[in-house]
Amino acid sequence: MPPGASTAGRRREPEAPGGGPWPGPGEAARPARQGRLEGRTETLHRYGRSVDVPSTGQKPSHLATTAEAGPAPLDEGTARRALMAACSSVGIDATDAELVRLGENAVFRVPRRDLVARVGRGADRLTRAARTVAVARWLAVEGVPAIRALDVDQPVVADGRVVTFWESIDDRPEYGSVVELAELLRRLHGLSAPAGIDLPPVAPFEHTRERINRAPALTVDDRAFLLARWTELAEAYDTLTFELPPGVVHGDASVGNVIRDREGRPLLADLDGFAIGPRKWDLVLTALYYEQFGWHTEQEYRDFAETYGYDVMTWPGYPVLRDVREFLMVVWLSQNSADPKVAEELARRISDLRTGASRKDWQPF
Q1: In the chain, what percentage of residues exceed pLDDT 70?
Q2: Interior CA angle at 55 toward 54 and 60, to 5°?
Q3: Residue ranges of domains in the chain, CATH in brackets
């Protein structure tokens, strides 16, 4: 999600051997089968192996049953306090700052300076924030249409948060099309890795345990289920092989991260996830949004695949990437589950993961 964009109309979330055929396009995932074994629940998953999940009431030491202590929650008050301190340090008057989004970051619009500020969850994200600013400046040099970092000394650490500043690109966010996304990805995927920027390898599960353990609205059983599902998917992901050598990827490529500027030009946004990895990682979300959620039509997906020049759904490893992405969407949402509306959506998603029910009623956040 770009700095300064609202979530209105957004289409994003910020994816068997031994178990029968892989689910095909339009098919719901098969529900897990459960049975009791000496006080434990054995869940037989679609990847053809079992993962033991503790039964209700059991609390093994390796599974957290309560949210772990961490930094103060990121809410409007704590984010605004950090914003004001950061702006003061770089000479920006942010008294008119407006909160436009609260998710992985708090995003503020500062109309007086025609800029957008992002406030991160903790100072531990400083390295990543500095890399994001560097990526934006590299894309500008390469001529890739993308959001631009403000020309100030940044990132700024203030009140235990990391703050970055960006040029405002719109007054009312308008998202790009799947065709525009495919065109931008073709251009990005053709670039060599930037010199002087240490892009990390794609690490799908980097913050998974932390987010699950700290999620405020998870029950003991749901927390244990998500941790077991994480183990299963991580092992499945590790078995994948990719034909091409790794390259530069956006990391969270969807139409929700293509924003038109005031002249109507599509720009890549949300540059936090830039990494080195399989380019298929950038293609899966559009396929997932079409196949599982119905957020894209069949024609839209065809246009995307034809414009990019490859249909990731034809790749044998696609179901694993799809399920990983889907799971990560649930985990990402869990960190904001103190909000009753988010908690309701989270409960629906976890139930659907457990039962294999249709995802067509999942709502974008």
Answers
A1: 81
A2: 35
A3: 33-355 (3.90.1200.10)
